């Protein structure tokens, strides 16, 4: 039998189980990797293209209740929502494994396993993974051809779009400033699509979602042997964008020591991996974005002044959604059309009354919050009548007197945390934020 081109990851703290599973699955799949410590899972998945994960449910001695497996499954799903996960469990934990299926596992197998069952389960998971990737690619292409934010009635946005049209063909560094959810990613991608690099890679690097100890290796790569877990040469995300566009989001999160290295990279267009003296010539275009006040960060010595001047050759301030109310209708109709098609509810419409409700809400989460609001409303409405699900508005539309954006933001975060019983991942998803961004806001408000 010809091996299927797929990378399988097995995670178990029992070396004998890892060996047996790997030997068997190696007969059918081109690459099978093993990890004995679950703490290494996320880094491994970040650095490798994995098609399916076989995950044990117990890792701590004396705590054989399967909760470890559910915890790490949730962590993997947060990082890679579409990645199929097969749980390995003992006979007495079947009920917990079934709970795992409800929470997103693709299958579970009992120890000791039947080899044919193991193969069949992993093979099916790989097929599911490939279908998910194709669907994701199709959705990305579909969304890419619908640049919703580029259709605007707002004078502020039209001026920005004219500015973008002028700077896109150049290689000038661009700094996009604006609150979370205002569409910095969409504009960065639009700049790339209007440039001479449009047929080359566009790589989005969210510095707010990378842990600080992984910043340097993720961005710049490393040489084999550079540190304990460096088992092979690794090209960083910037190097992999050669000839294309690097979009460094949340640039204000970059640690000072790496700001120096980034400044050198931008100035000299040369990159060195960790543990390597060799310099590699780099030809990329940089776009940066942040919701932070970088001038204040410079004054407080949290951000290098020379780097600030280097990254903002062209500075573009994106207005919040409440400052471009003329576009709320356009965006709402766009999102409604998208989700009517996705959830097969073609008869839903936005009445004048519903549009009025949308325009009277301050949208502290901006376009991203509007997007999530419309999607939730479509999902939970019946097939014929759209009902807006805006709990924040419903509870306060008659009592809100303070429209201070920070107060509103704190209120929404408290509500999300209460709703999801303190689950950070679910609260962040509901708010349309990354977990790192939510943690920063919780720290800011002392939550």
Automatic annotation (TrEMBL):
CDD domains tied to this protein: AAA (cd00009)
Coiled coil (residue ranges): none
GO molecular function: ATP binding; sequence-specific DNA binding
Keywords: ATP-binding, Nucleotide-binding, Phosphoprotein, Transcription, Transcription regulation
Biological process, per Gene Ontology: phosphorelay signal transduction system; regulation of DNA-templated transcription
Modified residues (4-aspartylphosphate): 56
The Sigma-54 factor interaction domain, residue ranges: 150-379
Ranges for domain Response regulatory: 7-126
Pfam families documented for this protein: AAA_lid_14, HTH_8, Response_reg, Sigma54_activat
Keyword field contains Chaperone: no
SUPFAM superfamilies, sorted: CheY-like, Homeodomain-like, P-loop containing nucleoside triphosphate hydrolases
Name of the protein described by the UniProt record: Sigma-54-dependent Fis family transcriptional regulator
Organism this protein belongs to: Chryseobacterium antibioticum
């Amino acid at each position: 039998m010809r091996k299927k081109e797929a990378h399988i990851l097995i995670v178990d703290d029992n070396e004998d189980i890892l060996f047996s599973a790997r030997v068997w699955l190696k007969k059918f799949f081109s690459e099978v990797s093993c990890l004995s410590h679950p703490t290494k899972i996320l880094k491994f998945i970040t650095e490798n293209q994995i098609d399916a994960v076989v995950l044990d449910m117990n890792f701590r001695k004396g705590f054989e209740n399967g909760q470890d497996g559910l915890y790490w499954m949730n962590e993997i799903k947060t990082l890679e929502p579409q990645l199929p996960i097969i749980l390995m469990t003992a006979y007495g934990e079947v009920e917990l494994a079934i709970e795992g299926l409800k929470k997103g596992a693709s299958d579970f197998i009992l120890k000791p396993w039947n080899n044919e069952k193991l193969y069949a389960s992993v093979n099916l998971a790989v097929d599911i993974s490939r279908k998910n990737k194709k669907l994701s690619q199709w959705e990305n292409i579909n969304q890419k051809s619908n640049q919703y934010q580029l259709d605007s009635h707002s004078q502020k946005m039209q001026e920005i779009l004219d500015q973008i049209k002028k700077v896109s063909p150049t290689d000038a560094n661009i700094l996009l400033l604006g609150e979370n959810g205002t569409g910095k990613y969409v504009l960065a991608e639009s700049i790339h699509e209007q440039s001479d690099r449009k047929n080359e890679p566009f790589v989005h690097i969210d510095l707010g979602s990378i842990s600080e100890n992984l910043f340097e290796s993720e961005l710049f790569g490393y040489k084999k042997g550079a540190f304990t877990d460096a088992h092979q040469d690794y090209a960083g995300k910037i190097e992999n964008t050669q000839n294309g566009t690097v979009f460094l989001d949340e640039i204000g999160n970059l640690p000072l020591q790496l700001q120096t290295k980034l400044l050198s990279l931008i100035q000299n267009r040369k990159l060195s991996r960790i543990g390597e003296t060799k310099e590699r010539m780099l030809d990329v275009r940089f776009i940066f974005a942040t919701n932070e006040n970088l001038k204040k960060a410079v004054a407080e010595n949290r951000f290098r002044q020379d780097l600030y001047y280097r990254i903002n050759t062209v500075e573009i301030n994106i207005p919040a959604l409440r400052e471009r109310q003329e576009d709320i209708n356009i965006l709402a109709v766009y999102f409604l059309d998208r989700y009517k098609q996705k959830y097969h509810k073609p008869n839903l419409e936005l009445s004048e009354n519903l549009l009025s409700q949308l325009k009277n809400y301050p949208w502290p989460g901006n376009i991203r919050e509007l997007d999530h609001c419309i999607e939730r409303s479509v999902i939970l409405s019946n097939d014929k009548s759209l009902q807006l699900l805006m709990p924040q508005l419903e509870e306060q539309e008659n009592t809100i007197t303070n429209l201070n954006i920070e107060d509103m933001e704190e209120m929404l975060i408290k509500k999300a945390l209460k709703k999801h019983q303190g689950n950070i991942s679910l609260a962040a998803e509901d708010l349309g934020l990354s977990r790192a961004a939510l943690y920063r806001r919780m720290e800011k408000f002392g939550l």
